[in-house]
Amino acid sequence: MRQQTLAIIKPDAVSRNLIGKIVERIEAEGIKIVAMKMIKMTKEQAKGFYYVHKEKPFYESLTDFMSSGPCVVMVLEGDDVINRYRKLMGATDPAKAETGTIRKEFATDVEKNAVHGSDSPESAEFEIRYFFSQLEIIN
Ligand code: DAT
Ligand code: MG
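That is the input. Now the predicted structure with magnesium ion docked in place:
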């Protein structure tokens, strides 16, 4: 089933000049990038994006990190792309991520974990709309 998902190259990966390497991994998987831009979130914008985690102990630290520098946000498209991209990213904690995944290769720790990907069709819809207008997505 053709789907879209929201992907983010997080500030740790952007600051370490890993944009190209991560984009290469996505394209090598046969996943299409249908929207892409660089942004720097404010603390409030990061809190809005991660509102589902607002009760978590790491919410403050996570939203400080996500607003600490530029990110690359992308809309990815393909068959079953939500699960396929989650698999390509690897586990949230890079210490537990499988060999060959983006997080295993590029993430520093459970917070500075290089990339984000939506985890369901509902979150993908919310997250894509959070960053992109319809005009910015190629169809
Ligand atoms: P994912 O990004 O794999 O979907 P998540 O939705 O559970 O993971 O958490 C969102 C982000 O919050 C995650 O990418 C990094 C941070 N995070 C998650 N668990 C954490 C923890 N135990 N300590 C610190 N940061 C954490
Ligand atoms: Mg998540």
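The first helix runs from residue 11 to 15.
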